[in-house]
Amino acid sequence: MRGLPPAPSNGRGSLDTIYIGGGTPSQLTIPQLRQLFIYIYKVYDLTACQPPCEITIEMNPDDVTAEYAAVLQQIGINRVSMGAQTFDDQRLLFLHRRHTTSQVVQAVGILRAAGIRNISIDLMYGFPGETLSDWEHDINAALALDVEHISAYCLTVEDNTPLQKWIMDNGQWIMDEELERAMYELLMDKLTAAGYEHYEISNFAKPGYRSRHNSSYWNDVPYIGLGAAAHSYAPPYRLWNVADINAYIEAIERGELPCEKEYLDDDTHYNDRITTALRTCDGLDLTTLSEKHRSYCTKEAKQFIKNGLLRIDNERIIITRKGLFVSDYIMSSLMFTE
């Protein structure tokens, strides 16, 4: 949840966004989902938010039914995020996903019929053997759905995953860097030509449909994380709940908050801003930095500005399109080190 801290004793608090995510929240039954929001409405005054509170739920396409979609609308959920990943059924099998490409199309239709007017889908590229033409097919299929928001990520290999096991069983697979760059170029070209705003490295939105919740992370806004393994940000602290679900429940029942916290000193906070704000098209507002960090940042940025990888616009440092391809290197170079 993004917004104010928990409700004060003399009344209800207010929120700007709520995000029901992590795991598979669409596996909640309708009674469970209703109960969750009954309590949320008791604690928070969602009518106080202008514009109206953005309330998102992550869903698997195959979990979307007409009955479930109608309930989302009834309880105030106004944004749905779905992991389509690809519009090729063989690649979905490779990812061990339950849904099919036709179910993604069907899910969007059901949500529209229920009155959901803000839908986001995730795409993935860089599959073994995937061609630029294959990726263009996926982009075109996503555009045909006319959703408000699209996120796209290059496939990466995590430890102890089915993908890592597949690579070990089938020989080494490394994504060709030139092909990966071409895929990202194609993504940017086609989505911006279709009217989407490229507002963050991996995120595109129609005008007025940026993810307000995710934008809070990139814009240094405090947020509250509820549930096992959830993270919170309450300056000057970063907090994270225990990951063990049973330990989490037991602590809550004892009236304890089962979390650890880290104090963020000025240097750590600056480094966090570098790795979040610079991901966005708005960039990093230099006027929000201390004199020490502003001086350091502008000095280190000079080489990248000269090379066309960064630009300064109205007291903001922004990564250029050329710089997006080496954004990790740029951000690590601007981080403060003693």
User: Largest sheet at a glance?
Assistant: 8 strands, mixed
How many angstroms separate the termini? 34 Å
Question: What does the overall shape look like?
Answer: globular
Total count of helical runs of at least 4 residues: 13
Please report the total strand number as a whole number: 14
| Number of structural domains | 3
CATH architecture of the largest domain: 2-Layer Sandwich
**Which structural class do you get from the secondary structure elements?**
alpha/beta
Strand order of the largest sheet: 1-2-3-4-5-6-8-7
Q: Classify the fold: give the CATH topology of the largest domain.
A: Transcription Regulator spoIIAA
Q: What is the share of helical residues?
A: 40-55%
- Taking pLDDT < 50 over at least 5 consecutive residues as the criterion, the unreliable ranges are 2-10
C-alpha-based Rg, rounded: 21 Å
Mean pLDDT: 92
Which CATH class of the largest domain applies here? Alpha Beta
Report the portion of residues in β strands: 15-25%
Question: Helix-strand pattern, N to C?
Answer: EEHEHEHHEHEHHEEHEEHEHEHEEHH
Question: TL;DR of this structure?
Answer:
This protein has 338 residues and is an alpha/beta fold. It has helices at residues 30-43, 66-75, 89-94, 101-113, 132-145, 162-170, 177-193, 212-218, 245-253, 266-277, 291-306, 321-324, 327-334, and strands at 2-3, 15-20, 54-59, 79-85, 119-125, 149-154, 197-200, 203-205, 231-234, 237-241, 259-263, 284-285, 310-313, 316-319.
